[in-house]
Amino acid sequence: GQARESAEAPEHKAIILATTTSTQDSGLLDELLPLFEEQTGYLVKPIAVGTGEALAMGERGDADVLLAHAPAREKEIVAAGFVINRRIVMHNDFLIVGPEEDPAGIHGSDNGAESVERIAETGTRFTSRGDDSGTHFLEMSLWDAAALDPGGDWYISTGQGMGATLLIAAEMRAYVLTDRATYLALRDRTGLVPHVEGDPLFLNIYSVLEVNPERFPEVNSAGARAFSQFILGREAQEIIRRFGVEQFGQPLFFPDAGKSEESVGAFPRDGPRGLTPAPGRAPDDLTPWS
Amino acid sequence: MNEFVLELHDVAVTYDSRTVLDVPHLAVSRGEVLTLLGENGSGKTTLLRLLGLLVRPIRGRVVFCGEEVDFGSARRLLELRRRMAGVMQEALLCRMNVRQNVALGLRFRGLPKPEAQQRVDAWLERLSISHLDDRPASNLSGGEAQRTSLARAMVVDPEVLFLDEPFAALDAPTRQSLLQEFKDVLADSGVTAIFATHDRGEALGLGGRVAVLVGGGVVQVGSAEAVFSRPERADVARFVGVETLIPGRITGEAGGLVQVDCGEVQLEVEGDWEAGEEVYVAVRPEEIELHDDADHVVGPGRNVVGGRVAKTVPAETHFRVEIDGAAPVVAVVSRARYRDLALKTGQSVQASFAARAAHLIQRAGD
Amino acid sequence: MNEFVLELHDVAVTYDSRTVLDVPHLAVSRGEVLTLLGENGSGKTTLLRLLGLLVRPIRGRVVFCGEEVDFGSARRLLELRRRMAGVMQEALLCRMNVRQNVALGLRFRGLPKPEAQQRVDAWLERLSISHLDDRPASNLSGGEAQRTSLARAMVVDPEVLFLDEPFAALDAPTRQSLLQEFKDVLADSGVTAIFATHDRGEALGLGGRVAVLVGGGVVQVGSAEAVFSRPERADVARFVGVETLIPGRITGEAGGLVQVDCGEVQLEVEGDWEAGEEVYVAVRPEEIELHDDADHVVGPGRNVVGGRVAKTVPAETHFRVEIDGAAPVVAVVSRARYRDLALKTGQSVQASFAARAAHLIQRAGD
Amino acid sequence: MELIWNGITQALSLLLQGNPQVLEIALLSLELSGLATLVALVFGVPFGALLAFKVFPGRGFTVTLVNTGMGVPPVVVGLFVSIVLWRSGPLGFLELLYTPGAIVLAQFIIAFPVITGLTMAALQQIDPKLLLQLKGLGASRIQLVAVLLWETRLPMLAAIIAGFGAVISEVGAVMMVGGNILGHTRVLTTATVLETRRGNFEVAIALGLILLALTFLITWLLTLFQQRSAAR
Amino acid sequence: MELIWNGITQALSLLLQGNPQVLEIALLSLELSGLATLVALVFGVPFGALLAFKVFPGRGFTVTLVNTGMGVPPVVVGLFVSIVLWRSGPLGFLELLYTPGAIVLAQFIIAFPVITGLTMAALQQIDPKLLLQLKGLGASRIQLVAVLLWETRLPMLAAIIAGFGAVISEVGAVMMVGGNILGHTRVLTTATVLETRRGNFEVAIALGLILLALTFLITWLLTLFQQRSAAR
Ligand SMILES: Nc1ncnc2c1ncn2[C@@H]1O[C@H](COP(=O)(O)OP(=O)(O)OP(=O)(O)O)[C@@H](O)[C@H]1O
Ligand SMILES: Nc1ncnc2c1ncn2[C@@H]1O[C@H](COP(=O)(O)OP(=O)(O)OP(=O)(O)O)[C@@H](O)[C@H]1O
Ligand SMILES: [Mg+2]
Ligand SMILES: [Mg+2]
């Protein structure tokens, strides 16, 4: 592309970005990457895969930079020394959606564990991604919290991405735990309505991680650093904030550059459906841009 | 019994809009053997296919046992076809063993296995291919394949049999004995057979009627003897081996014989023609005798043509001698006579033939 | 010039471990025409393929122009094969038009297009298939296909030509004239030709040497005349049309002629045999004359066998007459003689033949 | 490379331990793809024969359509089948989506043009004179086609192998219309993809190898038959 | 159903507006799949001829392998190619992963057995006597194979169509080894899947239709040639 020639081309141009499908499927990357490429002259190859695979790519050194949303697993590979510089980029939230009739009677709850317990008790259908994704891990922790081991005819493990799982849930009139971005994208198609939201556990935190160049010398560490600086930078964070407002009437992600996990947590509890972003959360001053 | 098994009325067959067969009328009687003769590409195979209801004429009617064939009804066509069987010119065998190939027609007709086996065995035996019965058909020799193809048609015991040069790849003794046997089988069973061949001996040996095709048309039909000794057209004459065709013009009649002026020679021939007509004097080669000198040859009703030996060609039982002279003549002489005459190229000889052994053919434009 | 183009030394060919050809020795001289005769499945095609370097013998040596052929070297094989050309028994044409088919061999040899076209044109003309030149080969008639196949081999103008029943599907006049032309071409060009056929007339007409195959072995090689009139074995005799084979035993010699006791008749034959030997008296049918009564037949050196007419079969130039009697005899009589004798089945006749026209064949175990 | 080795070990251990879940998935794969291939044969062979032998208006267009069918992306097939089978779709009342039946349907649509197209090409290769010869021996239309299929058994087996291979290996459409639901519609390919996404490459490779082994077995049987008849 | 209709409208508008991005993606699809098919032909046809005509030890096994290859799940191919091309893999130094080259490689591996297997089946159908006849006319090995391929042009074109169809429609492997990177390795199939995942079914259908139209065009040209030569 001609647009990319504005910046001086770096020596090692290509950056492999391993990311979860939600960032690509939502269209966020399509907004961010051209800008980054234009500003820096790098060429990003986003590989959208499952969270598990994305992290595995980091572990093998087959990617330069990761964008993931499974904090616990991320910390593991940081601790193991495969990746470095894990920094929080943004968050959105999860919610449990289901058929409008709400057969399990969980509408309005803000307790995920209780809700899944009700679902299990009533034997209402529930679709699980079953693919070791961040969403799947969260769902598992809800079952854990309810001290249940789900299984049986009502428990449908799809082993697919969020979008497909939502579609299946719609067809089967089942409940499903979903991230907000994907749900909004498919809301009209599925006709599912939100029933449970606002549980503190439902926080979905995305971080950027650089692959450790000491461990994997062939890694494009300069590019990785540039990317993580870019995505934490003012311009990118502003794009994240606005992304989706036009189409869905609400943002899909909330910028969090510079925050720690604890400080991301505050859920706005106003409004029966959906979140209204707290004002003045722009992280402009929080991200150093060199 | 003059019942017709097959009749053609004013039919024509085209390939890619080229007419390759055009027959105003042809009828085949039950139990007869009809032999088709004609040069390559004259339409013999096409005629067999038409009679076998395998190609659709663009015009005209085909009548089978009194019933006009409806080429639109696949079911009826199949029923009629199952009363016939054909041997194609090429032995197109399927990729099965010999026995399975021979059994195909019976399988199509749903014959019970044991009976089928028995009939197949009988024909394998008859055509001396029993020892090949489990050989894949693809690695037979040419003659073995043709025998298999022949057995495949014979075994279904049809009412009408179509044979397209069925013996061409067989060795001479087999051909001879098979022809004999074949004739007997046909006579016994009353099967109607239509037979295309290039072998004049076969046509004569079968002894039925002969139809001569030229350029897609049937130009002469008659007994084998009649067609071979009294061809009605010059092209037919050449084709049936009447190679001596001396052009001339009728001058009149004398002693019951037509007088023909052939330029350097005057010939006498039996027949009933008017003076002034342009004709060929046609004589079969074996009717022509050769002599050392003219003295021996005398008598009324005997024509003599002088000339020189142009070429001699040995054949199985005789020599074929071409003579250039007042008129080109082709004669056949026995080996003994050939030795007696000590014929050599360039030698001067006299050729004679009886007035009743020759006949006249109309000479058209040429 | 007794240069050998092809020699076989102790070769054998097997298919599926069945030996179908086993030849201790065979040599083909430059420029000669060798005709292979033999019944179906006797190995003619296989022998042609072997000589054409298209099958690999399991044993023995093939020598081409003095060079032992190395069947392991594909390159050398190709070079040698390009000096030959073959016409297979079946006209296996490619799915192209006639011209392209005929040009194949030239294309393989990389001949420049204009020259190739010219040569193709010449042969299309010669075989009267010019009008078919852009017809797809798949819809030719049988004879047209065979002509194409023949042109395809002839056009490459090879040193050695293999022809496997090349005229079987041609109409009789074409076959006759082509055979003639063929003979002239071969004589002019010095091409070596090896020719398999079932037609005895062709074998005689070509006039070269004849090799007779029986069950994969070459049992007699000699001039056409020799093989046809003096077959050395009973099976060869039957195959070349020597149908009269009267079993007997030598009793001695008289007047320079061997005396043979054949049970009811005593025969005299030329030859040099010892008393007591078991033999057949072999006579070609055209050497046998038929007579109404015995009176006419006299003289030394002439044998007479009486009998009754069992069967008469018309052929193109003659009648074939089978006689049952003291010994079974098959004779060929001209149409004229047939008419004179007015032969009928069951009629009593005398068959005579000259002592020098018969020969003796060893009678083995049987 | 080590991964592949680990995958092989894992595949062996899964098989030797007789892991019931893997066995179930493998059997389901075979069953569904086998059934889809069979149905495709039942419809594709006669249709291929029709296209090979009959001349009718629109034949050329139909042939192109069938040949195009070989190049239709399975995901597009999956998409269309999904749309048709959705609750809101015209066949929604059948409640077929996310059932094995939906998988068979999609796989049938994928295999059908492959088998039809290759059948047609195989049969067109036959000498028209053989057709006449068989008709002349009294073959009905069905008998004719039966003999001709036997004649062309080599390319026909290749067609079956290609058709079966196309569906047993397909994942996109099967994922879409089957839903990859554990215990119901999870087959070997979708399970492989799932394990890949999970980053469990060894298990993915193991499943892939089991699928390969299965395909090899089936193909081996078909090939044995194919090549044995090539000998004749 | 309405979705499909909207998809058609969208496809038309994308095409008529000459949307440069869609055009680029479509061209890339054609280019890569065409190249992969070509390479597969270059290797597959001689190999198929070898298997058809040569008898050598291990031939039966090789034939089975090739036939199995038709049933190898593209995702497994994708997985193997990925593993080999990973930075940590044996060919990692080539830096081929996530490039069009990797796509061509994977597609080649997918098309190769299809073309080899169908070539073999087509050539084995030939009368061995025709082989002898051609050798007897002085054909070298290459000339022989060339003439025989012309003889079997109907099934050979079917083989090409099947091979091209298999790769142009493939998505799993292409996604894995290409990475579906916009402007580099995004082809019609991966774009379709992406749009489906995004819930943009209309666009997905539109892309699918464009792919279908492309395939139809190519197939139409090949079929035209195939059926014209069927006439002779
Ligand atoms: N490919 C093959 N595989 C097995 N056997 C074969 C093969 N080709 C020929 N044969 C057998 O080898 C023997 C000799 O065959 P060949 O074709 O040489 O006979 P031929 O003398 O040419 O016969 P014909 O006069 O019938 O053409 C026959 O018994 C035949 O069945
Ligand atoms: N399928 C076809 N398409 C076009 N023309 C054909 C087809 N079959 C035969 N012909 C042509 O029709 C004419 C008659 O062919 P036919 O096969 O009937 O001749 P034939 O008398 O049997 O010749 P032969 O003695 O060579 O077998 C020939 O000129 C031939 O080229
Ligand atoms: Mg014919
Ligand atoms: Mg032969």
Could you characterize what this model shows?
The complex is a heteropentamer, with one copy of chain A (290 residues), two copies of chain B (366 residues) and two copies of chain D (232 residues). Chain A is an alpha/beta fold and 290 residues long. Chain A has twelve helices and ten strands. Chain A has helices at residues 21-25, 28-40, 51-60, 71-79, 112-122, 134-145, 162-172, 180-190, 221-232, 234-242, 245-248, 261-264; strands at 14-20, 43-49, 65-68, 83-98, 126-128, 155-157, 175-179, 193-196, 203-211, 254-255. In chain A, strands 1, 2, 3, 4, 5, 6, 7, 8, 9 and 10 form a ten-stranded mixed beta sheet that branches. Chain B has 366 residues and is of the alpha+beta class. In chain B, helix 3 (98-108) runs parallel beside helix 5 (142-154). The longest helix of chain B has 18 residues, at 172-189. The two termini of chain B are 43 Å apart. The relative contact order of chain B is 0.11. The model of chain B has no long low-confidence stretch (mean pLDDT 89). Helices cover 78% and strands 0% of the residues of chain D. Chain D is built from eleven helices and no strands. Classes of the chains: A alpha/beta (290), B alpha+beta (366), D mainly alpha (232). At the D-E interface, helix 3, helix 4, helix 5, helix 8 and helix 10 of D face helix 3, helix 4, helix 5, helix 8 and helix 10 of E. The structure holds adenosine-5'-triphosphate (2 copies) and magnesium ion (2 copies).
Uncertain spans of chain D, ≥5 residues at pLDDT below 50? none
Q: What's the rounded overall pLDDT mean of chain D?
A: 88
Distance between the termini of chain B: 43 Å
Q: Count the strands of chain B?
A: 20
User: What best-fitting shape of chain B do the alpha-carbon axes yield?
Assistant: globular
Bound molecules: adenosine-5'-triphosphate, magnesium ion
The Rg value of chain D, from CA coordinates, equals: 20 Å
Q: Rounded to an integer, what's the Rg of chain B over CA atoms?
A: 24 Å
Strand content of chain D: under 5%
Largest interface: D-E, 69 and 69 residues
What is this structure's SSE topology?
The complex is a heteropentamer, with one copy of chain A (290 residues), two copies of chain B (366 residues) and two copies of chain D (232 residues).
Chain A: E1 14-20, H1 21-25, H2 28-40, E2 43-49, H3 51-60, E3 65-68, H4 71-79, E4 83-98, H5 112-122, E5 126-128, H6 134-145, E6 155-157, H7 162-172, E7 175-179, H8 180-190, E8 193-196, E9 203-211, H9 221-232, H10 234-242, H11 245-248, E10 254-255, H12 261-264
Parallel strand pairs in A: 1-2, 1-3, 5-6, 5-7
Antiparallel strand pairs in A: 3-9, 4-7, 4-8, 4-9, 4-10
Chain B: E1 4-15, E2 18-29, E3 33-38, H1 44-51, E4 59-64, E5 67-68, H2 74-81, E6 84-87, H3 98-108, H4 113-126, H5 142-154, E7 160-164, H6 172-189, E8 192-196, H7 200-206, E9 209-214, E10 217-223, H8 224-229, H9 234-239, E11 244-254, E12 257-262, E13 265-269, E14 278-283, E15 289-291, E16 302-314, E17 318-325, E18 329-334, H10 335-341, E19 348-354, E20 358-362
Chain D: H1 2-16, H2 20-53, H3 59-69, H4 74-85, H5 100-124, H6 128-136, H7 141-151, H8 153-168, H9 172-178, H10 188-197, H11 201-230
Helix pairs in contact in D: 1-11, 2-5, 2-8, 3-5, 4-5, 4-9, 5-8, 5-9, 8-11, 10-11
The complex binds adenosine-5'-triphosphate (2 copies) and magnesium ion (2 copies).
One adenosine-5'-triphosphate sits between chains C (15-16, 20, 38, 40-46, 89) and B (139-144).
